[in-house]
Amino acid sequence: MKLNHLVFDFDKFAQEMQNLKDKKHFDFLVTIVGEDFGEEEGLGCVYILENTENHERVSVKMLAKVVDGESVIPTVVNIWKGADLLERECFDFLGIKFLGHPDMRRLFLRNDFKGYPLRKDFKATDEYTLEDDNEPDYGLEYSLDRDGRLQKKENKLFTSDDYVINIGPQHPSTHGVLRLQTVLNGETVKRIYPHLGYIHRGIEKMWESMTYPQTLALTDRLNYLCAMQQRHALVGVIEEAMEVELTDRIHYIRTIMDELQRLDSHLLFTSCCAQDLGALTAFLYGMRDREHVLNVMEETTGGRLIQNYYRIGGLQDDIDPNFVKNVKELCKYLRPMIKEYMDVFGDNIIAHNRLENVGPMSLDDCINYGVTGPAGRASGWKNDVRKNHPYDMYDKVNFEQITLDSCDSMGRYLVHINEMYQSLNIIEQLIDNIPEGDFYVKQKPIIKVPEGQWYFSVEGAAGEFGVYLDSKGDKSPYRMKMRPMGLSLVGALDPMLRGQKIADLVTTGAAIDIVIPDIDR
């Protein structure tokens, strides 16, 4: 998708964005990209919106206004709830203050971090500290007074009567790198403040100094269970910008590999979801069968956990001679095994009691918070990128978009189970029909992307994963930004869990299928 931005006046920005949602039904805020556009334009944001009725997408570009030496933009958090963490991310890395946002705190970096890393004039230092991070117990809200001067006020995060505990980062169910600051009333959750960045590696900053082929390896280590899809989005945006024409063989193989990766991820999801609830046998069953999927992928890619098979212009190598035979055997083996997971765990009365009516979120709230993937489809939202914005062979195969209306963790589990059957259906339609042809379309030794801005997304195992690219025509990207699958899911944990129990927090976190490196990047 080549981006042709709508541009609004600063004073009318909030009203125009409200009109886009109310009058033109752009009710899904896909992502917000913060960017340093250079000396002439300064700091600003690109907003990508979708109409969930006809799946039309538009982009809006808003340059920040400098007030009292600070860059400011009106918030849209009162229009789309999903903007909460997205705007805090822009503030964290670029220093843009969003007027009216109730909680302008850093999201990933320490509060005492000096500077804003995604600004072009940022100079990295080797300074570090072993001191504890002094965290404020308030969020800052910025506004402009009648004279146009910048004002701020403190919004308390806790009252004197609040009982606050930290769930994570040293906790098995938060993967050792996610901290949920949880306000409790007895065992009932009142509020959750997520703290991120425990494994932040600065990938988007590193990309700015890399050539396009060098950028590819970093996507594989985000959600390592979606390495194929995430690299697919990255090569997809570059290939679209360069107008690379791929062979049908490449399209077939990429679609099959994406679905094998989805099976890999969903098998680990069902296993770990069971383990987080204390069901070790179901965990072992799923891990046993995941090995079969990895065996099939490894014979072609050479990797198991980290897959690095796609490249700009096609594939790293052709499929293994035994690939077709082994994939067909895998499909035949897996179908009865998926039913076995339901027999052992999914239909167990304990699983129903732990999952049903836990972490509820309605259809409208899922759209408002940007909860894509199986977590959103469990509330009836048909958000599958493979259907709404098809790529490769997804518009040539028959498969069902699984949606339920239970709006809870049980529904999220069942969507994952049923999507594995659909992945098998897709693979079986393609595996015997892979056409002859080149597995790679040769590119120039130095790849340069034409000047412009693009956004390309795929359906990852946990939701939409997209890559925004701003190119100045050089061999390195001027700005590349990922839309991670998990950030919007973490942002939705607070409304999902208000009024629920502590044990329900563990269940909900397991059921929405977050992988922290994807969030932290």
From TrEMBL:
<dbReference type="GO" id="GO:0008137">
    <property type="term" value="F:NADH dehydrogenase (ubiquinone) activity"/>
</dbReference>
<dbReference type="GO" id="GO:0016651">
    <property type="term" value="F:oxidoreductase activity, acting on NAD(P)H"/>
</dbReference>
<keyword id="KW-0472">Membrane</keyword>
<dbReference type="InterPro" id="IPR029014">
    <property type="entry name" value="NiFe-Hase_large"/>
</dbReference>
<dbReference type="InterPro" id="IPR001268">
    <property type="entry name" value="NADH_UbQ_OxRdtase_30kDa_su"/>
</dbReference>
<dbReference type="Pfam" id="PF00329">
    <property type="entry name" value="Complex1_30kDa"/>
</dbReference>
<keyword id="KW-1003">Cell membrane</keyword>
<dbReference type="GO" id="GO:0005886">
    <property type="term" value="C:plasma membrane"/>
</dbReference>
<comment type="similarity">
    <text>In the C-terminal section; belongs to the complex I 49 kDa subunit family.</text>
</comment>
<feature type="domain" description="NADH:ubiquinone oxidoreductase 30kDa subunit">
    <location>
        <begin position="11"/>
        <end position="127"/>
    </location>
</feature>
<feature type="domain" description="NADH-quinone oxidoreductase subunit D">
    <location>
        <begin position="447"/>
        <end position="521"/>
    </location>
</feature>
<comment type="subunit">
    <text>NDH-1 is composed of 13 different subunits. Subunits NuoB, CD, E, F, and G constitute the peripheral sector of the complex.</text>
</comment>
<protein>
    <submittedName>
        <fullName>NADH-quinone oxidoreductase subunit C/D</fullName>
    </submittedName>
</protein>
<dbReference type="InterPro" id="IPR022885">
    <property type="entry name" value="NDH1_su_D/H"/>
</dbReference>
<feature type="domain" description="NADH-quinone oxidoreductase subunit D">
    <location>
        <begin position="276"/>
        <end position="444"/>
    </location>
</feature>
<keyword id="KW-0520">NAD</keyword>
<dbReference type="Pfam" id="PF00346">
    <property type="entry name" value="Complex1_49kDa"/>
</dbReference>
<dbReference type="GO" id="GO:0048038">
    <property type="term" value="F:quinone binding"/>
</dbReference>
<dbReference type="GO" id="GO:0051287">
    <property type="term" value="F:NAD binding"/>
</dbReference>
<dbReference type="InterPro" id="IPR001135">
    <property type="entry name" value="NADH_Q_OxRdtase_suD"/>
</dbReference>
<dbReference type="InterPro" id="IPR037232">
    <property type="entry name" value="NADH_quin_OxRdtase_su_C/D-like"/>
</dbReference>
<keyword id="KW-0511">Multifunctional enzyme</keyword>
